[in-house]
Amino acid sequence: MLPQEILEDVQAELLNWRGLGMSVMEIGHRTPEFMQLLAEAKVLLRQLLQIPDTYEVLFLGGAARTQFGMVPLNFLAPGETAGYFVTGIWSAMAYQEASRIKNAYCIASSQSQGYIKVPSPREYQFQDNSAYLYFTPNETINGVRCDFTSPDPQVPLVADMTSCLLAEPIQVSNYGLIFAGAQKNIANSGLTLVIVKKDWLSKINSEQLPSMLDYRLQAEHHSLYATPPTFNCYMALKMFQWVKKQGGVDAMYKKNQWKARQLYDFIDASNFYYCPVDKADRSLFNVCFRTEDPKLEPLFLEAAKEHGLLALKGHREVGGLRASLYNAMPLEGVEKLLSFMDDFARRRG
Ligand SMILES: *Cc1c(COP(=O)(O)O)cnc(C)c1O
Questions:
Q1: Which residue, judged by its Cα, is nearest atom 13 of ligand 1?
Q2: Strand, helix or coil at 191?
Q3: Annotated catalytic residue: which of 42, 102, 160, 197?
């Protein structure tokens, strides 16, 4: 979801953006106005996440999953491999894609336990010639949160932050590359943000790479090698401004913690609902839960819809129920859901 005030703003600007008499969609990507917009968005994202100057910020077209292929294509030279920490469906897919086109190995996996807990460091296995280590801090589908640090600071860390960027503080300097598809927490679908360490870019061998998939080329052209998804960049700028106005990433994080705590506490105290994920490894942004009697889940979704509560169906890969609590979800949204859940349990329990 997006904040109502952004949607209203966008609606008002559709016919006349910044006095140009037209929408941002209708102006060229090399116009001073659009270049200004992109520059503002980059500066603001840098501020919000305190991104050091030694990092490049890219606004690329395409789904987050494009990065599943781009990372190995750019950073795995012949004879090298990469370690993947498999903690849910998104990291499993990234591992599968890397293995399909290059060499990759699994650091540890919780697949056999159904991804309800994160493997412990005792299970980690590393290989010597690792060019990078990859993990997914927030597993959106499984509702799992995962911390991972590289045992060797010389080996860059890659993180898929599609469902958590700008929702919690991060230390950018811990990473070689961070990417995030915009559609969960930032803007409309079709834009992916990439934050990448400049000196790692110099390692890329562009010869074998399609130009559009070459991080170094995209960085040299300041994300304007081809036409970026301009409207999405405009939406992202609006969201960055909104996050800043809310008090920045720390303030968002406090609210997000509160929202998640309300929901997990309620579920844990209930004998009608339960959360399958291990307490220590629960996501702050995607609360997966089930009803003790699974037959009630379709009825729950139907009744929720009648109350204006949407998007509560678990992902088709795992089933069950899921409440996503991204930045734009207000505290009142969680309160409304809790009151509905309580009521439904009383009627059906
Ligand atoms: C949604 C999601 C993706 C996939 O996004 P697409 O843009 O559809 O490719 C990848 N990783 C994570 C963590 C996600 O939440």
A1: 162
A2: strand
A3: 160
